[in-house]
């Protein structure tokens, strides 16, 4: 009887069956190579960074960049791994039928950590083949595309573009200022001649009543350019041009004549300081400031006593206009909007509209409450807008505030109000020496330390330096990392600057054994910010300020000779303002920009900066670590700082320093220090901040090309922490209302804190007011779609 089934014949051949091994563990690339090798296929092609061509290259199995930073990369193919079916019967040279322990571990396809011995790495520098755990900084880094030109001989110094003019050619009295003011400027303030912007601004603002748009490079004296005409015309109420009294008594109760708005508290304080020095020649004129972070009660008391010139931030001035009835704007003749582009970028548009509207709503008074005629003042309200650039937001601000304005630059004065003004290119001072450093993510931190160490290697070469960093969390971490351990351990100091001023470590030298370290950002309390900035200005020893963009606008700190942009600015305009903290008023200065190899190198051409020189991180490290590195003292009782001199070459010292920093972070958990947590939080905030570059520049600062593991190493971390995309937590309470535990922190995170920021910036509109659970969940889903959807998720300062 025939079988109804189907018979299949298979020819299995004479070769033994090989068991199918599934490789697990390790990296995906290693598992893929092992699988292809087991099947007898060639290894995958890898990219040869040396000559830019794809080559066949086998990699040994195992980890790549692990937590300890050891990079493994083979330069020749390795033998195919033995499986359980192939290890039997094979003998070694000694004839013993034994199996390698490592081979046995691969019989199941498991790739345990640390299973591969480290071989030599062909990269920028040779590494040791064996020994203790090291932190390898110069392997697996992307190759830079920029080819640096050979250094040329120093050329003749460039003529400063923002220096005062020749005293023989120009003087303040010839511009229309009284002899009293001109004599005060020359004798007390040591200002013999005006700058170009002052020469072009003072005459029209003194004689005419037209609105004005001032535009000039940083450090050119814009503040005095608009203050001098205001003080001159107020003084004219009680004194003639020659300084003789007219019999009219002007004092603090004569009325409010001028309001000056600035985007940050620090800039308001600086304008007030300049005005205070200027008013020493006219002590009967009184000025004051109203800014966030100060007591509103004391501000109202000063306004009630009387003030002639008011300097304010938009948020606080709006509050006083709404709630301080004694503030009378009927006699106001000038409204000055300083740093107009920054005012718009920070979201003060609604506040500015409200301020301009309330001032214009009041009828212009021809005489004050005491019956004094104000004929010497402008017979209309004059608005002065100061901005470095003519961007669209500035043009919008001009439409809100300006009427028939005169466009004034450092080179000329344009009286044609109808002339079409294209977006002007704002340039840095001509005497500023600009350079950039191409540093990969892994050696980025030690490159910064090497640059600072070489900067302060000679006594008197550089007195003060400013380091700009993208976010406040990163400022806090780098300050704690670079400060002396002995200083951080001391708790007796109860001053306002106890946590913002300290002695620096790692960057000292025999020529400068003491270097002061400062930090400043918008999340600090206002008294602390004021005290820290004052201490930095008055510091006589070499010092370094680590700060955010809160210090990039308008601040004039004497003796700042170096500006380091450790994190690139969020726009070219911010970059130029950062560099403007040095090379002011004709003085020399240097600016260094840190960039990573890859897409960020395209940013160099985007800057369009003339005579921009560059160098690699290797050059900086060679120059900075040519001498031993002084480590922080463990306690204040230690006579000298320990020295890291076990390695002799600069690159070995750089790796030893990186390992020291990583171990210091790990040991901080045992000692109760929060340095490791600070590093993790700084890393998260840095990644979020990196995603907020302006749209036109994201092609250079592409977060998808950012290596998180390598970036973590620049924060002293051995692995990238998670939680990058998580924003501030929100919890729902009864009644459908939401309560945010970080509301105040998020408020301070958006460029400024307290009521200096608009009500709709940094927090959601209607936050905590009748929001249902469904609405809250919908908002959270929308926020989680992007890594960084609002500035409130990190501290930009």
UniProtKB/TrEMBL annotation:
InterPro entries reported in the protein's UniProt record: DEAD/DEAH_box_helicase_dom, Helicase_ATP-bd, Helicase_C-like, P-loop_NTPase, SPB4-like_CTE
Keywords carried by this UniProt record: ATP-binding, Helicase, Hydrolase, Nucleotide-binding, Nucleus, Ribosome biogenesis, RNA-binding, rRNA processing
E.C. designation(s): 3.6.4.13
Biased composition (Basic and acidic residues): 56-66, 749-767
Domain Helicase ATP-binding: 203-408
GO cellular component, one term: nucleolus
Domain Helicase C-terminal: 444-625
Name under which the protein is recorded: ATP-dependent RNA helicase
